[in-house]
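Protocol step 4 of 6: structure prediction from sequence.
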Amino acid sequence: MRRSLPAVLAICIVAVSGGSALAQNPFRHYTEAAAVRFGNAQPVLTYTLTIDTADLSAFAVEIRIRNAPDTFRLGMVAHPEYDERYWRYVEAAAVTAPRGGSIAAVDSALWQVVAPGGASTVSYRIRLPTPSRGFRSGWVPFLSPSGGLTGGPHVFMYMVGATLAPAHVTLELPADWSVATGLESTADPHTFFAPTAFVLSDSPLLVGRLRNWRFHVDGVPHRVVYWAAPNATPFDTTAVVDGLARLTQQAVALFGRAPYRDYTFQLQDSALGSLEHLNSVSIGAPSSRLALGMTDFFAEAAHEFVHTWNLMRIRPIEYADVQYRTPRRSRGLWWSEGITMHYADLLLRRAGLPTRDSSRVAHLESLIGRYVAQPGHARFSPESVSVVSYGAPPGVLGDYAASVHLQGELIGTILDLIVRDATSGRRSLDDVTRLMLERHSGVRGFTGADIERAVADVCGCTVHAFFQRHVRAGNALDFNRYLARAGLRLQIDSTAVVDAQGAAVPDLRVFAWDAPGDQGVRLWLTHPASAWVSAGLHTGDPIVGLNGVRLQNATQLRELRNALRVGDTVRVELRGASARTVTFVMTGYDRPVARIGLLVNVTEKQRRLREAWLAGH
């Protein structure tokens, strides 16, 4: 539901060619309000990134370094969630220095440089990997004759032990290319400034023949940039820019202010997926899909934009400064991802933008149905699922699956109802989120205890038992206990999964992965009651054949699986210590259906709480 906003948050959109003050203000003293603060031991770093359209297979990088020790180390940043390991593609690393020098790899993502005299130039190339079939990921670098995505942890090495050293980055590009990035602009349109290695690694550069639009919210400039493929499908650009402006307006109203000097939406044709950054976001936005509808695009954009506050500022304590080794896995991603999902949906409704579900009730019914459909959600705690959400090997949950996004979003809904009930509607999860921003957007990230403390401080109630049972331990959420506070009740029914013609859909809840080395293909089962598990198969089983076809890779299994129909005989051949043939008849399966209705004889407090929650206030 849309709601009116103060005049100060008015939006101004222009098309062009081609929390609190304490939490948001990084300065502690007026002398800190300078672009750069120097120390005698601080190195001086200047990067040059060259793109040559005659060779679109690689980026060339040069780092000019002064005031450095005779021996130092350079590393490639490991992203805490999406580590693409681009150190694998570094080639032709070399160093030049007045008194000679050398560079050698000492670890997978670490190089040692010897350059006596304190001044040197390090050069290397990033050879882009061969693109996979289909759409590429929206955060992964690419080059084309008309543009590309570069920079960030995939391209720039950083000086280990000098992560607070500022740097300038100069881009050598084709004459008709422009740049869109979160890095600070300078007097030179192709030179940018990064105050720290973290900012350098978290500010990708979208370059090429770009389309640009701008708008302001609360006086802060925002830019929408689109790189279009040569065969781009026309779509309503005005609707895209207007929608992003309205989304931004609602997010700034929720959190109290924009935590950046400006913001850039980097939209790319022919890509899927997205990744949040400090003051920008890389979003795959295929023009062919935007032409058909924008519901999915706005849902993804809303999620990543809310991450600007809830992850990039309100960050888990495990997420610290850049490092070349994969950071410690966080137990708090249920908050970072789930609460972000909660507000992505809610802010779209407040902005009057299209959503996937017609109402908050319909949305909650969908979430609960998915939650109940996978018993892994009740078996594994949100904290434990957080730890294995990124970077863990396939099948780490055995024959189960669980989504930390889903667990966290439902916990967020329950916490919202708890706070509203305890404060008679005066406060909500909005207040908890703002308090988290106040407390944990600075030097210290948050722990699970910090979230519990923030909820308790806002509601003036005790939530320890809830956190112990449903966040730190694996127990099914008691939805009716909390929905009743808003005069609502839940009923779970079951129905057969059928296709558009009403025919039973086969139980295809089986996946696989290509194990490293010569271990072959391994099964990955996601439901303990599936036809596959019921036949005696389990996650990790080494599969070599399906219905007489010898498997070469996991993709082949997926293709054979998709051809199965209800009533087919399925023969699975296993090897090694598990060598045997498992035969069973393919069946259909049921799914739960959640329906939320109204309680009768509710109190006035329940009625008011329900109306405010339904309206999204």
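Step 5 (inspection) to follow. The two ends are 8 Å apart (CA to CA).
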